[in-house]
Amino acid sequence: MLCIFLYFHLQKIDCCEIICYNLLFWGYMKLVPLDIRQKDFTTKFKGFSKEEVLSFLQEVSDNFEELMQENNKYKDEINGLKEQLRTYQDIENIMKKTMITAQQIKDEMQLSSKKEYDLVIAEAKIEASKILAESKEKVNEYKKEITELERQKTVFKSQLESLINSHLKMLQFYE
Asked: What is this structure's pTM?
């Protein structure tokens, strides 16, 4: 900073301009440009009092150092907050992926349940068809048996009538 001061001094630029330049270049300080502009330095034979200028530069330097420390503290704080934000964003992304996966699993389970339901219904229909076919087959068998029994009944009745008639004839013959 002293080098900058000497450069400006050799260029015949006053101390207020130097301090304003430093304030603009390095950022805000507790001092405001008005404070610097209103700072009066006593003049001596060859210009400003070196002690007052150095004292004021020391004050500006102290303020600047304080601001740099504060700035570093805020930068660290910002970096910490950025890291927290990244962590939360990672958690959010994981949660989003988890929700998407859960939704996909739910959809797959619903589809699987629907397929299983359809399969059970199809199997039940096939089984019902088999039972119905077997029932019809048994009904047909029973009808055949009934027809056969009716035929046997007719044959038996006819044979019985014949036997009775033949016995009657025999009885009539012997009478």
From this structure: 0.44
Query: What DSSP assignment string belongs to 15-43?
Result: HHHHHHHHHHHH---SS-HHHHHH----E
Encode pLDDT of 155-166 as tens digits: 999 999 999 999
Measured CA to CA, the distance from residue 73 to residue 80 in angstroms comes to: 11
Give Cα separations from 15 to 29, 67, 84, 95 (angstroms): 17, 21, 45, 59
Helix/strand/coil percent split, the chain, to 5: 85, 0, 10
φ/ψ (deg, to 5) at 104: -65, -40
CB 104 within 8 A of CB 68: no
- What whole-number percentage of the chain has pLDDT above 70? 75
Q: Tokens for 126? A: 């096939």
Looking up tokens 């303020």 gives 63
Three-state secondary-structure class, residue 48: strand
Pair of tokens at residue 27: 């950022």
Of the candidates 31, 34, 36, the one whose C-alpha atom is nearest the C-alpha of residue 62 is 31
Which among 5, 3, 22, 32 is positioned nearest to 65, based on CA atoms? 22
**Domain residue extents for the chain:** 2-95
Output the six-digit token pair for 36. Answer: 């610097």
Cα–Cα distance measured from residue 17 to residue 5, given in angstroms and rounded to the nearest whole number? 10
Q: Which residues pair with 48 in a beta bridge?
A: 43
